[in-house]
Amino acid sequence: MRGITYQIKVGLVVVVGIILAITAYRGVLELNRESGYAVIVEFENARGIKKGTSVQRAGTDVGWVGSVKLNPDRGVAVAEVNIFPGITFPADAKFFIMSEGLIEEKYLAIRDNPNPDPLAGDAEPGQVFQGKPDPGLTDMISNANLALVKVNTLLDVVEDFMGEDKLGGLISDLAMQLSDTVEVANRMLVRADRLIAINEGKVTSTMTNVHDLSEDMLALTGELRGTVESMDLGTRMDALLSDVDTLLTNMNEISGDIREISGDDKVRQDIKDSIALTRSTLVEAERTLRTMRGTLERVNEKIDNFGPVGFKGKVNIRNESVHQMNRSDSAYVDVKTRLRVGDNAYDLGVENIGGGTPEKVGVTAQAGVYMNDSLLFRGGIFRSEFGLGFDYSRDGGLGLAGDLYDLNDPKLNSYLTFPLSDRYSALLGLEDIGDENQVNAGVQLSF
């Protein structure tokens, strides 16, 4: 009985010792976390942070999150952030929820405003800041998928336009329309000749009929005059007959003028010259249309001689790990596209898309030449700096790429790709070789 009592006493002493050690450890932590002052940070989405979450600036701990509460009236999360004594930061700084490592452990980062206000001064106790949530790897993948859908839509439009049933068919239809126009012009010339011949005879015949009609009316007037005189109607009919004579005289003059015009060789020649000029104009138009058709046919031949035309792209989802002080792992997304025309290639893309380091996002716009089906040399803008690079690929899908860029601070990157399936490959690379030696690993999606 005494032995059992002794064992219980020893156990109680051990338990009390452990409790005292834990209490002492928590006390030390509280001493180390002595708050100099507190500020308020409001978030529309405070996902991932809680009481005790670390607060960092430039990769070093400067405080911790004291509490996170919901403001039901405004629908925002309000975090009380405790800052260590002696730590200051600008009043216009920004608060970001960041992720660290592959498991995306959250911490709160304080960053300087990219457009600082020189009159802002330092943050004061109780000052309210607006925080931005961490986009997370899932959101970045969703954005990359959205960009992929848009690129695929653009690819469908380009392939539809470059297809033989579109571009080639358009040129063929245009050539057929030009040929039909030439045939219509020829038929117009033939009809014009026939019209001149037919109308010339009709005009002459019409003028003859008018002249004969005037002669008949003159004879009729004479007979009428004789009849009236014989009837002794007197002066009442003299005025009427005089008017009829005047009318007949005018008709004879008109008939003579028409006959003179229709029989004038100069007028006929002018009409023929005008028709001949119209004919020569149509012939010149026919010649021009045939020349245009030949030009379009040569353009079609040039398009056929361009060689292979293709469009492809890839999306890299990678994690970057470095081994220097005040740096943490980061996740990035790269979106790249390539248009190949014969032996030439044109690259366009955006790299280093990631919420952790928005200042590292860079644009790529390069042109290159295929030395053979496996090797491409390229040059231009790489990650918003001038750079040169190459791509080497084998039939099995294994690929190697290298880039040298940034004349002011030269950097060398190299990546290997290993095929996993038709569209997915494993990605392994090393960036800033010889300096930071940033190891990158991830997955590449090809489309």
Number of helices: 5
- Terminal CA distance reads 79 Å
Strand content: 25-35%
Summed over residues and divided by their number, the pLDDT gives a mean of 76
DSSP summary, beta strand count: 17
Number of domains: 3
Give a concise summary.
With 447 residues, the protein is α+β, with helices and mostly antiparallel strands.
Please specify the SSE layout and strand pairing.
Elements: H1 2-32, E1 37-43, E2 54-57, E3 60-71, E4 76-83, E5 94-100, E6 105-111, E7 128-132, H2 136-162, H3 164-231, H4 235-262, H5 265-304, E8 309-321, E9 330-341, E10 344-353, E11 362-370, E12 375-382, E13 385-393, E14 399-405, E15 411-419, E16 424-431, E17 438-446
Parallel strand pairs: 1-7, 2-6, 5-7
Antiparallel strand pairs: 1-4, 2-3, 3-4, 5-6, 8-9, 8-17, 9-10, 10-11, 11-12, 12-13, 13-14, 14-15, 15-16, 16-17
